[in-house]
Known about the structure:
By secondary structure, the protein is mainly alpha-helical. The chain folds into two domains: 27-144, Cyclin-like (Cyclin A, domain 1, Orthogonal Bundle); 152-296, no CATH class. The protein contains 13 helices and two strands. It has helices at residues 8-23, 31-39, 49-66, 70-84, 94-109, 118-125, 131-144, 154-166, 179-190, 200-214, 221-230, 251-273, 279-296, and strands spanning 234-236, 243-245. The protein has a two-stranded antiparallel sheet. A hairpin with a 6-residue loop joins strand 1 and strand 2. The radius of gyration is 20 Å and the shape is globular. InterPro entries: Cyclin (IPR039361), Cyclin-like_dom (IPR013763), Cyclin-like_sf (IPR036915), Cyclin_N (IPR006671).
Amino acid sequence: MIETLVTTEAEELLYQLTALLEQELRCQPKASGLRLIESAHDNGLRMTARLRDFEVKDLLSLTQFFGFHTETFSLAVNFLDRFLSKMKVQPKHLGCVGLSCFYLAVKASEEERNVPLATDLIRISQYRFTVSDMMRMEKIILEKLCWKVKATTAFQFLQLYHSLIHENLSCERRKYLNFERLETQLKACHCRIMFSKAKPSVLALSIMALEIEEQKLLELTEALEFLQLHSKVYIKIQGRKEEKCMQVPTQRKRGRSIGILVSFVTLLGFCLFGFGFGLVSWIFFPFVLGSLVSYLL
Length: 297
């Protein structure tokens, strides 16, 4: 058992993690709807993955402009993907849908004094629709989302995983597991629709595993394995329809599961971080991590 787990603080974090794991599938996009968007041709009449990704990048720019938290951005992406996976949205309406999702996330996550006026948000976004248009769209979105605005996000999992793992590092090595860097990687993933098909826990744990591999924090292997088992990450068996849960009683299966993750992360880490985490890595990170996430789904 890893050392962190014997502390009261860690027990509380694990309790929170378990609660999130139980809730994460309740407010996630429909995979079938996301696949339809991915397969759509860019003819100007249907929603496509490219249009969705551009809209999310605009929301990221707004998040940075206003200085909002990453959780707000992550929640806005959740709202947008859930709505797009349920409704057929014409490209000309995407701006209103995206900004309405963003405004709902801001009002749900940020302090009231930091919430901008709708008129200012529209003006800064340079859209032509009115406040009334956005208010009507907000109501439609809330109805389609069944008024569930407290969704579980990958950012919440990333926070918990980082807090649990961070305590297993010595003081001088904690700087190598930088949370801001992990946030940056998560934001990059949100800008690609493929990652919205992954469970938030899988996406967050994959990002954490890649970073641990890149920073060569080998002392965290046991902690990472424990979280992988605790989170019940599933591996899809090639050629079979059923999925095998990683939380299995035998040591042989347990070792095989973590071995698959570690070896795969090693390969992806070599492909990605050989470039250094600059502009090139920002571009290539989603493509590389996508292979890992699809493998773990």
